[in-house]
Automatic annotation (TrEMBL):
<dbReference type="GO" id="GO:0004619">
    <property type="term" value="F:phosphoglycerate mutase activity"/>
</dbReference>
<dbReference type="InterPro" id="IPR029033">
    <property type="entry name" value="His_PPase_superfam"/>
</dbReference>
<feature type="binding site">
    <location>
        <begin position="115"/>
        <end position="116"/>
    </location>
    <ligand>
        <name>substrate</name>
    </ligand>
</feature>
<feature type="binding site">
    <location>
        <begin position="22"/>
        <end position="23"/>
    </location>
    <ligand>
        <name>substrate</name>
    </ligand>
</feature>
<feature type="binding site">
    <location>
        <position position="61"/>
    </location>
    <ligand>
        <name>substrate</name>
    </ligand>
</feature>
<feature type="binding site">
    <location>
        <begin position="9"/>
        <end position="16"/>
    </location>
    <ligand>
        <name>substrate</name>
    </ligand>
</feature>
<feature type="binding site">
    <location>
        <begin position="88"/>
        <end position="91"/>
    </location>
    <ligand>
        <name>substrate</name>
    </ligand>
</feature>
<feature type="binding site">
    <location>
        <begin position="159"/>
        <end position="160"/>
    </location>
    <ligand>
        <name>substrate</name>
    </ligand>
</feature>
<comment type="pathway">
    <text>Carbohydrate degradation; glycolysis; pyruvate from D-glyceraldehyde 3-phosphate: step 3/5.</text>
</comment>
<keyword id="KW-0324">Glycolysis</keyword>
<feature type="site" description="Transition state stabilizer">
    <location>
        <position position="158"/>
    </location>
</feature>
<feature type="active site" description="Tele-phosphohistidine intermediate">
    <location>
        <position position="10"/>
    </location>
</feature>
<comment type="function">
    <text>Catalyzes the interconversion of 2-phosphoglycerate and 3-phosphoglycerate.</text>
</comment>
<comment type="similarity">
    <text>Belongs to the phosphoglycerate mutase family. BPG-dependent PGAM subfamily.</text>
</comment>
<feature type="binding site">
    <location>
        <position position="99"/>
    </location>
    <ligand>
        <name>substrate</name>
    </ligand>
</feature>
<keyword id="KW-0312">Gluconeogenesis</keyword>
<protein>
    <recommendedName>
        <fullName>2,3-bisphosphoglycerate-dependent phosphoglycerate mutase</fullName>
        <ecNumber>5.4.2.11</ecNumber>
    </recommendedName>
</protein>
Amino acid sequence: MDRLLVLVRHGQSDWNLKNVFTGWKDPDLTELGIAEARAAGAQLRDLKLSFDIAFTSDLTRAQHTLELILAELGQEGLETIRNQALNERDYGDLTGMNKDEARQQFGEEQVHIWRRSFDVPPPGGESLKMTAERVLPYYRAEILPRVLDGNRVIVAAHGNSLRALIMDLEKLTPEQILKRELGTGTPIIYRLDEDGEVVSVEDLAD
């Protein structure tokens, strides 16, 4: 049985381009982001991969990325489940703020702690630990059972919601996952065993 799980971070968004903390705000893809999503679809098509079901967040940039990927695969009508459990980490009071301006206002070290510590949230927002606490129960309840039943599943989401998943799948420490960079529009292909453990992983950015 082919237990396939593909994770894709959305293509570049308008606020990525502007170097702004985005979180749960809802900008769409840039022209580059659209091209990245189409390229991701082409990579998967070249590998002759197709899917039985798709999951994405409640945010436009992830949904648009998924739509473009599925169009490249000729799977425009694929069943797609959207849920805010897969949304990006909530940056709270930093949302909408330029990252350089945030460093000027709060200091380089404090912003670095908010961005790169595992369990220190920005004011009014979520840490990566808190993000994982909403992503992982949803994954285990809704996504993993589909994979274990032999469905080929694609998930289009965000840098930090996917980090939470990757940390669990690859059994990484908080220190290891915080160093993990996820390229925009780059598929990561997992094959799992009957217990949901990773048998192989292929990052198409490599």
